Amino acid sequence: MAPDSDAAAQRMFGLDGRVAIVTGASSGLGAAVAGALAELGARVAVVARRRDRLDGLAEEIDGLAVACDLSDAGMVGTVVPAVADGLGPPEILVNAAGGMFTEERAESEPLDAVRRTLDLNLVAPFLLAQAVFPHMRAVGRGSIVNVSSISGRVGIPGIPQASYAASKAALSGLTAELAVQWARHSIRVNTVAPGFFRSEITGPLYENERPAEYLRRNTPLPKEGGAGDIVGAVVWLAGDAGSYVTGQTVVVDGGWTAR
Q1: Average pLDDT, the chain
Q2: Which residues are CB-neighbours of 8 under 8 A, at least 6 positions away?
Q3: Which of 162, 166, 181, 202 is least buried, going by the fewest C-beta atoms within 10 A?
Q4: Tens digit of each residue's pLDDT (9 = 90 or more) over 48-69
Q5: In contact, 100 and 71? CB cutoff 8 Å
Q6: pTM score
Q7: How many C-alpha atoms does 38 have within 13 Å on its Cβ side?
Q8: How many of the other CB atoms lie within 10 Å of CB of 184?
């Protein structure tokens, strides 16, 4: 590659000096995203409940650890002020935190689990987006990347997750609305919807041969997905390489939903 091409690629993907917030960063996808953004030059605040894991990651990437239970709206309100004080005004927000609080079928999901799922997967990303908005508006640019799931687009037999699916579908709707409202401030809002990849939540599926075979059979690409496969899409949307992309849900699933 010619030297000028190298420089162009660096401009497209470089994040030197930009402040980023990554939630769900104590493990898995969130930790991988935080590491990638830091490698590209961003100053990264990592957010999750498990402070012991956060401290190690923050030290490794020379970032800032912010411990927070994102299902608690009151605690969510402390995140962005802590980041702004510690690193500066955030220009990138990656909402990677998410979870399921029940394995019951839809007709039996308890109300408490439904509310906890919506609070973590939908309300927290919305509150954080509201909190970073004035900082991004003042800077004159910003990128918010929400992490959803193919569960928000298609039903998956054998894995009951009604409230989780609803929260992820709603996240795509929120993404489109914020993208349109905030476009005049050059704030872009997008969603990445991963398919199945090995994580703390999905680990049991890969460790049991029957569900593992089910995943292989239903994924057109002949490889097992990993966090790194999702990170590339997030990095693209976070920086200037995705500067004309907003309001979109980008599916990264090895072809699962294309069948």
Answers
A1: 92
A2: none
A3: 181
A4: 998 888 999 999 999 999 999 9
A5: no
A6: 0.93
A7: 21
A8: 8
pLDDT on residue 156: 84
Tell me the CA distances in angstroms from 215 to 33, 76, 148, 229, one per residue in order.
24, 35, 19, 16
4 pLDDT band, cuts 50/70/90, is: low
| Amino acid type, 97 | A
The residue among 94, 192, 206 whose CA lies nearest residue 150 is 192
Pairing of strands 142-147, 249-252: unpaired
Whose CA is closest to 230, among 191, 181, 194, 202? 194
Count Cβ neighbours within 10 Å for each residue of 25-56 and write b for 16 or more, e otherwise.
Answer: bbbbbbbbbbbbbbebebbbbbbbbeeebbee
| DSSP 8-state code for residue 151 | G
Note the pLDDT of residue 5.
Answer: 62
Contact 18, 43 (CB under 8 A): yes
- Residue 186, by phi and psi: left (phi above 0), alpha (psi -120 to 50) or beta? left
CB 178 within 8 A of CB 125: no
Residue pLDDT, tens place only, 100-131: 877 889 888 999 999 999 999 999 999 999 99
C-beta separation of 22 from 192 below 8 A: no
In the numeric block, which tokens belong to residue 54?
């956060």
